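LOG
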Amino acid sequence: MLTVTARAMSPPLEYTSKSNAELLLLLDGSSPEALTHALTALEWHLIYYARYGQDGNPDAAQVANITAKAFLLLKNNGNTTIKLAATNLLYALDRLTDTTDQIEYCLTEKDPQVQVNALRALQDIFSRRHQEMPPAAVSVLVQLLHPRGDTEDDMQILWQAAAIAGNMGPQAKPMIPLLQILLRISANGSSFSEQEAHTYAYEALQKIDKDANTSPAKPLSVPQSHR
């Protein structure tokens, strides 16, 4: 089963209890497991500080160092899980410094998991700024909406791409034909990802243009955890 996002990962307590400085040192290591845990623990620290207003945010020098090391891992490490964790950390850092350039780098990656994870982060960032998605992101999203096959992995990428398109509103109008194709090819699917693809394609069409053709449509309920 494909893991499209690293956000569901929970770092062990031995990592979350470490300081930012200690976690930064671990980013110089080579163990994939330790690197993933360190990246995810740093992300958790940032989320915790933001949510509960606790002291402990990294200072400006640490922010710059974390950003540089996360981006270096994103560019140079071939492990998909590490790339996802690095992207998620850069996304969490964006409230302290602008990391959109680093996240946009993910769009040049060949792995669709990395691309769709970056698109979700970018969409949230630009939505908070009340800005449209950059042209490069739109172009990659169009590519991801092209059906590549009917495996579970393919469908997981498609339903997440459809969800992103639906949240873009009128900017996603050029994607309507692709969403209509996705609606058709997933109409009789029985797997979880096929049902998700059908649901999100239908909902995206309704959000983008309520007059768009949504036949055949059989909207299904989507778990709140995926919205």
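LOG (cont.) second protein
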Amino acid sequence: MIVSSIAAQPSERSAGQRALLSSAFASLIFASIALSSTGAFAQGSAATVVTASVTRESAAPTASLPGTVISTRDARVRSEISGRVLWVAQVGEKITAGEPLVRLDDRVLDLELRRNRAQIARLEADIAVRERQRGRLAHLAEENNMAEFELDQVEADLEMLRQDLSIAKVDRERTAYDIERSQLPAPFSGIVVERSLTEGEYANAGEVIVRLVDPNALEISVPAPLRIARFNRSGSSVSVSSEGVQTIEEIRSVVPVGGGQSRMMELRVALDQANYLIGEAVTVALPQAEPVAMLTIPRDALVLRDREQYIYAVDDNSKARKVHVQTTGGHGERVAVEPLSGELEPGATVIVRGAENLREGQAVRVLSSPLALG
């Protein structure tokens, strides 16, 4: 009909009009072919997926508990003496162990040290005079009783001078020690995260001046119910997750002492500093019962969307079947699940790659044979 209509037009139609009509006709035909091809492809297409097998394993039910990443070396450095602050390391500055964090004004201490040295010199001079006097009296005492009495007095004075000299030397050492303490060295390598005082302010003995934190000595502090203490021990591996990152870490210590009201204890989990930041909130999966036989799947098979948690199993007709599940535990790359809808048996095939855009009943093409991942 379209071709006949075009052919029936008057012959005097211009060449430009004929070319325009021919172009429109060709575009219409190409569009029809593309639409037909798309529809055919959609009807017969199969999603490409990677699968794995459901297994039955012995696993312990876990409790997901909140934890906080902390540093095991977090020091609030205090002044050991009183004095005016001359310099404080800046917030964010990296300090190596032994390098100064704070410098206090040591002018008064320097003057005190000079006074101590002068006192020692004076006492040493007095002792030298009394020792010469004792030598002369010792010679006279052999012939004169009065000289013997004076000798005893000189020896007593000489002993007191020697004790005064010892005290003066202790004072000198104490002043020198205070001068050393006017500079506060870093007890370990770390980053300055807080300054309580700044240059020009006066620091009292025992007052906090800076806070130093080691970002490489990380642990997780996990408050946990006392009832799970018997199911966790030092050296056990647990799953730690935060912001989509999941790692397997080791329990460093369990402190099985709880509060009288909270009935909570603390666990410390060692951390790889490359994955977490101090103060970060994490979730730790801790065993809360004895291991039991459970269905396990690769963790990658779980789909979390719109407050739903499900997996896709592949039926005998190579079609995706949605199964809602509840996680009951897990370790490493596998997680224990309990089906809430549908059936799930050991040996069943589940999709671990390509499930994000699937829909119920969609045909699938397995990229590789089922793998028992884990």
